[in-house]
Amino acid sequence: MQIEVNGQTSYAATGGKEFNSNLATVLFIHGSGLDHRSWALQTRWFAYNGFSVLAPDFPGHSLSSGDPLQSVEEQGQWLVDFLDAAGVESAHVVGHSQGFLCALELAKQAPTKVKSLSGIGTAAAIPVNPALIETALESCARAADMMLQWGFGNQAQMGISAVPGMQPIAIGRQIMACNPLAVDLQACANYDSGEQVAESLTIPTQLVLAGQDKMTPLKAGKALANTMNAKVTVIENYGHMLPIEAPKRCLVCLREFIGSIECSE
Question: pTM of the prediction?
Answer without folding.
Answer: 0.94
